[in-house]
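Per reviewer request, we include the raw input and output of the structure prediction for the construct analysed in the revised manuscript.
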Amino acid sequence: METPRFVITIGRQFGSGGRELGRRLADLFQIPYYDKELIAEASKESGLDPECFEKADEQAPSTLMHALATSLMMGGGAMRSQGNALAGENIFKFQSDVIHEVARMGSCVIVGRCADYILRNEPLCISTFIYASEADRIARIMRCHGAQSPKEAIDMMRKIDKKRAAYYDFYTDKSWGAATSYDLCIDSSVLGIDRTAELLRSYTEQRIATAAAQPGRPEPEEPAR
């Protein structure tokens, strides 16, 4: 029996290990992993400079406009020449189109960027949200993200979580981090990254088996253009 195409999306608190978990899952299933790669592809599809998408990455419009204005005032090179293009083009739509495209290409893991909402019409989109204890998050941020003290790690954690929540809540009709917004919300501190990945693999395999057993599975709807 042919394995149905599936997508695992990962929302995550900063410092929870969501990216690491996504890579482990991609390795376990031997499927592509998408994170920053989506920015490069969206940039290529749109013809806009990659820096535009870096500035916009997981930022709500009000925060994005402040970042762009600051860059332009500081003489931000390519950003200066493309400020008008950004005002007329919807960066979120470019990235959404890329997310739809990679999902159509085959099974994959996608981290962040409202992928769970963008792919809500996919028959087998498994949406997850990863959180962790504050102690684990502080330790990971200091180890992996350059924070020099617990206080600095906490400041980074709060700032980035606030930005991600604003982005998610603006573009979706759901709430970032709320259990009702996802299929699974998991504390990565309890089992650690490896065993959490195994847990998610088991859950995904059960979802795949259930979908494969259903006769006449519907094809996903084409996204609105």
